[in-house]
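Per your request, structure below.
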């Protein structure tokens, strides 16, 4: 009886010692490495597509994602979400197109038209209004984070006085390179104003220091008189959050998606190693750890390269009325 139990114990130990998690098989390691490289290349392709495409639908998808991100930040602060106003979208598109065509990045155009000109040209009669700008970006998530890390831009996004929003993007040249221009306009219609509106404070410039990763401009100003110019903006397409396709988030946030995919692969590798170590009590397969280390190192290097080549830091500017 004792010998029989001993034989069973030896057979069980042999099975355990030869256990090999499928995730750590040599072929799976090769496939994982290929997936890591393919994801890197896909992120680069998406970045080029966003910069080179002139599709109004793609632009509308990116704008819808930016609206969703802004409302997420407001919800976290117990603020009501901003409603997309087609007139504000039209104003934002006209401003984005103007910057893209004329290759400038500022609240005031080369002709001297300030931010409020575009509101009035679109016919948006406001009580409060504000504007955030960004250029040279590849990931909507990075832009929203940069805006939220800048006090002036953050004030616009989470200002409880604003009830509506319009976002538009356009592709053009900036400082000799292809770039995506984003315009985020906020407003509160004048029809919502009280019977006796409060007087606006005098114009007051607000200086803001630039962070190490972004260049930031900020100011607060009074409304300019409307000046007529020809509107060269195309009709804007508006996409609601519920209508954003899954690929839209991949298109709008390639850096975020690449990072999340690499995190997931890394966690699976570490989990596989842990599972391997748990079962192989008598023999640790160091080759598994070495292969996993190679894959993890490759992901880290490729992400750094992608961040350097594909994903430029956004440049920002903001202006607001309160």
């Amino acid at each position: 009886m004792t010998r029989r139990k001993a034989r069973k114990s030896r057979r069980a130990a042999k099975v355990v010692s030869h256990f090999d998690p499928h995730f750590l098989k040599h072929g799976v390691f090769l496939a994982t490495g290929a997936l890591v490289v393919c994801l890197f290349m896909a992120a680069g392709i998406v970045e080029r597509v966003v910069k080179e495409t002139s599709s109004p639908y793609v632009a509308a998808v990116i704008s819808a994602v930016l609206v969703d991100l802004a409302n997420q930040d407001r919800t976290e602060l117990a603020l009501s979400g901003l409603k997309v106003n087609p007139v504000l979208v039209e104003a934002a598109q006209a401003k984005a197109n103007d910057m893209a065509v004329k290759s400038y990045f500022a609240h005031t155009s080369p002709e001297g038209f300030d931010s409020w000109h575009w509101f009035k040209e679109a016919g948006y009669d406001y009580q409060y209004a504000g504007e955030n700008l960004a250029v040279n970006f590849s990931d909507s998530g990075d832009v929203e984070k940069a805006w939220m890390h800048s006090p002036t831009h953050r004030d616009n996004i989470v200002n409880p006085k604003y009830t509506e929003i319009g976002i538009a993007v356009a592709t053009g040249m900036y400082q000799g390179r292809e770039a995506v221009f984003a315009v985020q306009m906020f407003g509160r219609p004048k029809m919502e104003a009280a019977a006796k509106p409060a007087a606006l404070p005098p114009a007051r410039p607000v200086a803001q220091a630039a962070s190490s990763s972004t260049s930031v401009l900020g100011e607060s100003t009074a409304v300019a008189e409307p000046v007529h110019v020809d509107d060269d903006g195309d009709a804007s397409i508006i996409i609601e959050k519920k209508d954003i396709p899954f690929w839209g988030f991949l298109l709008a946030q390639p850096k975020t998606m690449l990072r999340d995919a690499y995190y997931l692969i890394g966690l699976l590798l570490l989990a596989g190693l842990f599972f391997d170590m748990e079962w192989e009590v008598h023999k640790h397969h160091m080759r598994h750890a070495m292969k996993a280390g190679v894959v993890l190192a490759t992901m880290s290097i490729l992400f750094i390269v992608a961040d350097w080549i594909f994903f430029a830091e956004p440049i920002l500017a903001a202006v607001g009325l309160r």
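The domain at 57-191 is CATH 3.40.33.10 (Pathogenesis-related Protein p14a).

Regards,
D.
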